[in-house]
Structure formats: C-alpha cells, structure tokens
Amino acid sequence: MPLAAAWYLLSGFAVLLLAARDHTLSPWFMGLPFTVGQFLVAAIVHRASGASNAH
Predict the structure, then answer these.
(1) Which of 29, 42, 48, 55 has the highest CB neighbour number within 10 Å of its CB?
(2) Would you say residue 9 lies in a domain?
(3) Does 28 fall in a domain?
(4) Which pLDDT score is estimated for 51?
(5) Total structural domains in the chain?
(6) Residue 4 has pLDDT above 60, yes or no
(7) Does some domain include residue 55?
C-alpha cells in the first residue's frame, strides 16, 4: 500500500504543477492518475489475498 500512496502523492503533485502552468484543470488530470492508482491498489489487494489459490 505504500507504493499506491506514493503514486497518489506524486501524481497529485504533478497535476498541481501542470495545472499551475495555464491555470486550468482538465478532467483527464484527475481521471487518469485515479484510474491507474485504483488498478494499482486492486493488484496489491489481489496479490495479498492469495487469489492464486482461489477456484
């Protein structure tokens, strides 16, 4: 989970830096990092749950 937390922290910081250039926020600036972060969390939970032993 620290990896996912670091992703959200760094991507949020990057979004703020990108938005500061032209003072606009695109919905993609939030949606894309959130989607990647959610897939990362899902992969971590899936791996930690031992889902390879599921039927």
Answers:
(1) 29
(2) yes
(3) yes
(4) 60
(5) 1
(6) yes
(7) no
